[in-house]
């Protein structure tokens, strides 16, 4: 946590920070538009309603976790176990389906599993005061490990046809159920972070947890709730992904935690906590989705895509910092 | 004058480019989707695919795959291929079940879908091409040993674990065809558990127990390497021939030392060639994927589909001193 950000009040309506956040979002939006235009020229298949609809699957599930993760990182914590929560939640749903539960029952089992995982992380971090990065690296192995013990090299495939609606369903024309959920959760988390007391508390904790505590904010409780939210959102993503795949294997969503964190940081959330915005994360999700889909249309090998995303991330993180340093030097 | 010239040449170039694009659009585009890019085995398959494309003509091969061997990564690749409206997808799957919805969507949009090497569940593909079949493998491993035993003699089997499904089936198939190889006696079957040191000890034990042993058949890539080392260390090169199923990169030393005369495994080049050839046959309507149908694989022959629309390509490919150098750098 650099002392520079301590001086800014963590309120969107206030001065310089507000402007920085706004300019960040504008910059990101410009990047998104540029990628969109480049893709349109690069491939004749890009501007097609159905293709763009298919492309949204590249980011909708990850973005839903990223919304909750954005709040968590803003508060100064992190959850690296989200992909493993997907695996455990999916395994629980697979077992429920095997046991003959209907669609609502399966979803309930999945969400409760996510909630339980979140509560476990939250209890260790908020309750015992352990560092979240260490705790969730541990639970990352723990949760997926349980899936591996349960499933081994087997798979659960007996999902009822009605379960397919989440990951394969359309509400009309090319609008998928996942897109609707994506927008819905973007609005909910946007309102929570930017318009509620809870959101203000999250920003305050991220800026100065001790200060927040002395201001009467129940820091531990807020952090515990944030871990619960992250667990539940990982479970929501698990419902969508499991439904889209129509099956569960313990390797499901392997490596997603880093993509989710990338999305959050690309969205302008300070990795050290204290500031961030949901609109930024929404645009970052589109940027990552458009880049992977656009390069996929040109059959660019996956490793080149990873390099591109990596450079993009370093670029948007480094540029404001370099600019800031230049300002200081000019000031002298 | 200069302006006219420039304008004319611009038009000419534009026309040529347009014609080029039109030509490319007319080509049949077959996507060879692999488990992950950068794996020698699949790079070799891509080479075979290009060979088939050149032979058929008017075929463009799109060789692609994710960075990691994940089902989610392959689905992103499949979505991008559906968007490009390719004519066929031939995939070696990272997950039997998880790819089914995405590949179903591809088939719904008129794309021919087959799996090869690592299969997709029946609902997600029109047919599956196995590199070989259990009877063909069972026959090949005993044939490899018999080929170098003109006077017959004793052979022993060094397997993986006693419960290994694949190895047990292959040994069972081998025993079925044993009467076709008169003079060959299988004296023992031992288990190295796919561990190098245990396989090595079991192979050494075999040579001590059966001094007249002529060959060790190891239908496992771990066992065959360990057995070859045991033969070298026992000074029995030329007396005991190690054969079975192995990887060229790991077996190059054994071929060079003479501990192994020959061994077999699928040929990835042939596999890529056959997958591409079959994709073309199905996408062009020259053949249909249905139980019992026979589909041409060009220079390799033809494949007959069983009731699950699966077929076996060919005998495992034999590697010996004549071709090991070519393949040892591939896989």
Please describe what this structure looks like.
The complex is a heterodimer of chains A (332) and B (331). Chain A contains 15 helices and 2 strands. With 332 residues, chain A is an all-alpha fold. A two-stranded antiparallel ribbon of chain A has the order 1-2. In chain A, helix 4 packs antiparallel against helix 12, helix 4 (60-74) packs antiparallel against helix 14 (278-297) and helix 14 packs across helix 15 (302-331). The longest helix of chain A has 30 residues, at 302-331. Chain B contains 11 helices and 14 strands. With 331 residues, chain B is α/β, with parallel strands linked by helices. The chains are: A mainly alpha (332), B alpha/beta (331). Chains A and B meet through helix 3, helix 12, helix 14 and helix 15 of A and helix 3 of B.
Give start-end ranges of low-pLDDT stretches of chain A: 1-7, 9-14
Low-confidence stretches of chain B: 3-24
Please tally the β strands of chain B and state the result.
14
- What is the radius of gyration of chain A computed over CA atoms, rounded to a whole number of angstroms? 20 Å
Quick one: CATH superfamily of the largest domain in chain B? Response regulator
Helix content of chain B: 40-55%
User: Would you list the SSEs of chain A in sequence order as H and E?
Assistant: HHHHHHHHEEHHHHHHH
* Biggest sheet layout of chain A: 2 strands, antiparallel
Helix content of chain A: over 70%
Q: Into which percentage range does the β-strand content of chain A fall?
A: under 5%
Q: Overall pLDDT of chain B, averaged?
A: 88
Q: Structural class of chain A, please?
A: mainly alpha
């Amino acid at each position: 946590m650099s002392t520079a950000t301590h001086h800014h009040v963590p309120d969107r309506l206030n001065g310089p920070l507000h402007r920085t956040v706004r300019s960040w979002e504008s910059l990101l939006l410009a990047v998104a538009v540029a990628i969109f235009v480049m893709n349109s020229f690069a491939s004749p298949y890009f501007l097609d309603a159905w293709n763009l609809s298919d492309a949204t699957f590249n980011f909708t599930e990850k973005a839903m976790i990223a919304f909750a993760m954005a709040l968590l990182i803003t508060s100064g914590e992190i959850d690296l176990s989200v992909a493993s929560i997907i695996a455990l939640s999916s395994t629980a749903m697979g077992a429920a389906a095997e046991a003959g539960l209907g669609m609502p029952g399966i979803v309930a089992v999945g969400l409760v599993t996510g909630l339980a995982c979140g509560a476990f992380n939250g209890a260790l971090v908020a309750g015992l005061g352990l560092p979240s990065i260490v705790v969730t690296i541990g639970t990352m192995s723990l949760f997926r490990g349980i899936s591996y013990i349960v499933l081994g090299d087997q798979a659960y495939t007996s999902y009822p046809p009605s379960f397919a609606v989440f990951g394969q369903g359309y509400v009309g024309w090319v609008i998928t159920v996942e897109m609707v959920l994506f927008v819905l959760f973007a609005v909910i988390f946007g309102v929570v972070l930017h318009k509620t007391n809870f959101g203000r508390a999250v920003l305050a904790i991220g800026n100065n947890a001790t200060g927040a505590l002395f201001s009467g904010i129940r820091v531990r409780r807020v952090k515990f709730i944030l871990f619960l939210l992250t667990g539940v959102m990982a479970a929501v993503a698990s419902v969508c992904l499991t439904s889209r795949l129509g099956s569960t294997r313990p390797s499901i969503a392997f490596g997603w935690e880093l993509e989710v964190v990338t999305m959050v940081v690309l969205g302008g959330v300070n990795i050290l906590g204290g500031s961030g915005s949901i609109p930024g994360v929404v645009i970052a999700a589109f940027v990552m989705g458009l880049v992977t889909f656009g390069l996929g249309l040109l059959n660019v090998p996956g490793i080149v895509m990873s390099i591109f995303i990596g450079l993009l991330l370093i670029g948007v993180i480094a540029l404001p910092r370099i600019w800031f340093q230049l300002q200081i030097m000019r000031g002298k | 004058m200069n302006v006219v010239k420039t304008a004319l040449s611009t038009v000419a170039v534009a026309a040529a480019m347009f014609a080029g694009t039109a030509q490319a659009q007319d080509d049949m585009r077959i996507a060879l989707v692999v488990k992950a890019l950068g794996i020698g085995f699949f790079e070799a398959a891509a080479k075979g695919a290009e060979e088939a494309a050149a032979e058929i003509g008017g075929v463009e091969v799109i060789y692609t795959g994710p960075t990691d061997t994940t089902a989610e990564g392959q689905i992103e690749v499949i979505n991008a291929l559906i968007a490009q409206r390719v004519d066929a997808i031939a995939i070696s799957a990272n997950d039997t079940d998880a790819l089914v919805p995405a590949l179903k969507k591809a088939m719904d949009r008129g794309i021919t879908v087959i799996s090869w090497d690592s299969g997709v569940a029946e609902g997600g593909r029109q047919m599956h091409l196995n590199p070989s079949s259990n009877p063909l493998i069972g026959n090949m491993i005993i044939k490899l040993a018999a080929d170098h035993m003109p006077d017959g003699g004793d052979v022993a089997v060094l397997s993986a674990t006693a419960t290994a499904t694949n190895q047990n089936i292959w040994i069972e198939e081998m025993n079925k065809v044993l009467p076709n190889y008169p003079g060959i006696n299988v004296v023992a079957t031992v288990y190295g558990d796919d561990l190098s040191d245990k396989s090595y000890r079991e192979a050494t034990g075999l040579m001590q127990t059966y001094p007249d042993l002529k060959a060790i058949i190891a239908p496992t890539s771990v066992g065959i390497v360990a057995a070859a080392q045991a033969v070298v260390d026992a000074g029995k090169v030329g007396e005991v021939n190690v054969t079975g199923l192995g990887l060229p990169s790991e077996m190059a030393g054994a071929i060079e030392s003479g501990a192994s005369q020959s061994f077999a495994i699928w040929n990835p080049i042939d596999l890529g060639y056959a997958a591409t050839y079959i994709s073309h046959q199905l996408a062009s309507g020259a053949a249909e994927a249905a139980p019992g149908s026979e589909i041409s694989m060009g220079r390799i022959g033809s494949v007959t589909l069983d009731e699950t629309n699966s077929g076996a390509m060919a005998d495992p490919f034999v590697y010996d001193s004549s071709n090991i150098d070519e393949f040892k750098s591939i896989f």
